[in-house]
Amino acid sequence: MNPYQQKARWKFILLAFAILIAGASLWYTNYLVKNISNVERVRAELWAQSIRNIVGMPDISDEYMNFFSTVRDSLAIPAIVADSTDNIFFYRGLDDTKTPFKGDINKKYDAPYFKSQLKEMKSQHQPIVLNLNSSGDKKWYVYYKDSMLLTQLRVFPYIQLTVIAIFLLIAYAVFNSSRKSEQNQVWVGMAKETAHQLGTPISALMAWVELLKSKFNAEDDPLILEMENDVKRLEMVADRFSKIGSKPILENYVIYDVVNNFINYFKVRASDKIEFVLNGDTHVEALVNVPLFDWVLENLLKNAVNAIEGPGKIELKITENLVKEQVFIDVTDTGTGISRLKFDTVFQPGYTTRKRGWGLGLSLTKRIVENYHRGHIFVKDSELGKGTTFRIILKSNLTYEPTNS
């Protein structure tokens, strides 16, 4: 399992654990809410019975009357007693300033307030039916709603989980940004150190090549010429690394010529069984830094060559989108293909399907295209067993300033 797969696996485990905690919290809260709701129902029923006894037993003794009044006044939840036509006779726990039932006769009855409260109570709980006579033809209905404590308890877990989720997202974004910044510093430091370390042996090799030419009078020897080309290539590689972390200079180039020159260099060093084809617009220009863009092509072509088992074909096609002022470069191979689930994963640092791969090629390619060229690269299409097409999108005019990354 490669590092990226391990990372994705741990993310999944942590997400599942977080969901489990959230689910357990909600379940326990609902359990408490249900118990408290049952207790409030019992209290509402006791209150309803006290109302019935007070109203239905006018000859009750003062001792029992005081007892029922105490039970009635002990109810802590809002409640209304009404008949079948919603005429209100008693209430409990509502706004006293809205009702004229007791107290100041100058208070105005706020009908909309009581109507809305009654509607809310009906929506929350089934009413408690009070039979005021033995025949059952006279009934009152006791409506009630959840107490403030129960209402808050219902909502609190969701608010709590939302706040925690927001906090975790912000924390993740901050730490992720910090980690990426640290990775960028590592990238830049390693690249510049590599360029520095390569400088001395490359200079020495160039000197040895010149010495071979002069000593053996072999200015046109094909082997020494190829050796010189490889030394120049090493020099270009060192130059690429030295540009990482610096602001690259982008210039207009005929993109067909840039791609063609690199293919001519690369195909000599690839298998003879692989055919390279370049077609498309031969005059369209794009803004590139040639040493860095050659690095992009090298990584894509190397991956394509590694994906082809036996004879195959790599086709590069250049087209222009005049409306958006963009240049498209499609790199298509006849290799093993990529699963659609891995279209984004292949650009993650550390992801590789090769036993000895570092998983940095496509990650570096994406960084060069998007950070230094302000372009875009993605897997346009792929099918297992048939091949893959990568698309590079570049700007065709200089309308931006590259950033240092």
Explain how this protein is built.
The chain contains 8 helices and 11 strands. Residues 398-405 have low confidence and may be disordered. The chain has helices at 3-56, 62-73, 111-124, 148-215, 222-243, 255-267, 290-307, 361-372; strands at 79-82, 88-92, 128-131, 139-144, 251-254, 274-280, 285-288, 312-321, 326-333, 376-383, 387-395. Helix 1 (3-56) runs antiparallel to helix 4 (148-215). 20% of the residues are buried. The strands form 3 sheets. It has a 5-stranded mixed beta sheet. It is 53% helix and 17% strand. It folds into 2 domains: 3-146, no CATH class; 248-395, Histidine kinase-like ATPase, C-terminal domain (Heat Shock Protein 90), CATH 3.30.565.10. The protein is an alpha+beta fold and 405 residues long.
State the CATH architecture of the largest domain: 2-Layer Sandwich
**What's the rounded overall pLDDT mean?**
82
- Uncertain stretches: 398-405
CATH topology of the largest domain: Heat Shock Protein 90
Assign an overall shape: rod-shaped
Topology diagram in text:
Blueprint: H1 3-56, H2 62-73, E1 79-82, E2 88-92, H3 111-124, E3 128-131, E4 139-144, H4 148-215, H5 222-243, E5 251-254, H6 255-267, E6 274-280, E7 285-288, H7 290-307, E8 312-321, E9 326-333, H8 361-372, E10 376-383, E11 387-395
Parallel strand pairs: 6-8
Antiparallel strand pairs: 1-2, 1-4, 3-4, 5-7, 8-9, 9-11, 10-11
Helix pairs in contact: 1-2, 1-4, 4-5, 6-7, 7-8
